[in-house]
Amino acid sequence: MQSYDVIIIGAGPAGLTSALYSARSKLDTLYIESLGIGGQVATTEEVENYPGFSQGINGFELSTQMEEQAQRFGAKNLIAKVHSLETMDKYHIVNTTKGTFASKTIIIATGATPRYLNCPGENTFRSRGVSYCATCDGAFFEGANIVVVGGGNAAVEEACYLTRFADKVTIIHRRNALRATKLIQERALSNPKIELIWNTVIEEILGEETVKKVILKNLETEQKIELPIDGVFIYVGNEPNTHFVRNLIELTEEGYIKTDDFMRTNIPGVYAVGDVRQKLLRQVVTAVSDGAIAAYHAEKYIEEYFPESMENNLRR
Predict the structure, then answer these.
(1) 206: DSSP letter
(2) Can you state the angle between helices 153-162 and 182-189, rounded to 10 degrees?
(3) Which of 70, 185, 209, 258 has fewest C-beta within 10 Å?
């Protein structure tokens, strides 16, 4: 069984930063990705709020540069799906579609997947008017007319945030009452730019190069109307990608991995970074911070429990 100092599961910004810091510290590093590098940011047309790129940068290009930097210091990559994670003595075992690997430390960077509406046009106009992140994309909708789908805290908070840019924000909710906390609801209801449409779902998203309108359906009357808009922000929840560790690592009720400030999980030598862990802000800049912190503490863990390994690495 092939063994590494650090195995990183996931190759978004958090995972690639972990790979960079680990490899640069002369640790034998492998990062595993099931589809392609970059995670959600790779599908973002333009990242404007990541420091160092004054004119913004395409999300896939940013991801590619991160991977090239990690590989320059010797990080290895594997395209495979991880089935499960086990512990064996001091080592951790990663079972994948391409074989089984052992590692002294594990950094989980598998991210979270937005829940989709699964309506016609959603996939077609993703990053062309359909978004799942107001902080990422809100500034592109200056003076626009947009809709926000959802009724929880995230949806209503982001609707309020989007009024900084948009002329009008319409919240579409499938029920007759919001699930957001009272204070957040009051902020939205008192905002003159926000309108609410109750008991309604989006049946279809339409447009040309970008989103131009949505077809709404009232769930009580079944009446359908056409609403001209410039963008759709969807907040119907996220699914953390933690299915392969649910019986091993301590999770929140929502399925996110619990960590301390050092990115440590309840399993010694196992860390979690980025969107997969319980945290306040999910952005590229916080993901890379998580990745650096986890790699640093993984190195310290190896120094303490595998001192002979560190000596060998330094001789390479």
Answers:
(1) E
(2) 30
(3) 209
* Element at 102 (helix H, strand E): strand 99-108
Q: Are strands 168-172 and 194-197 parallel, antiparallel or unpaired?
A: parallel
* Confidence at residue 41, expressed as pLDDT on a 0 to 100 scale: 86
Q: Which pair of tokens denotes residue 118?
A: 């699964």
- The whole-number pLDDT of residue 310 equals 58
133 is catalytic: yes
What are the structure tokens assigned to 270, written together? 């196992």
Q: In angstroms, rounded to a whole number, what is the distance separating the alpha carbons of residues 37 and 32?
A: 9
**Identified catalytic residue from 5, 28, 119, 136:** 136
Which of 137, 230, 275, 290 is an active site residue? 137
- Written as one letter, the residue type at 168 is K
pLDDT at residue 270 in the model: 98
CA–CA gap between residue 43 and residue 61 (Å, rounded): 10
User: In the annotation, is 136 catalytic?
Assistant: yes
Spatial CA neighbour of 217 closest among 209, 229, 225, 205: 225
pLDDT tens digits for range 252-283: 999 999 999 999 999 999 999 999 999 988 88
Q: Is 160 a catalytic residue?
A: no
Instruction: Find how far residue 114's CA is from the centre of its chain.
Output: 8
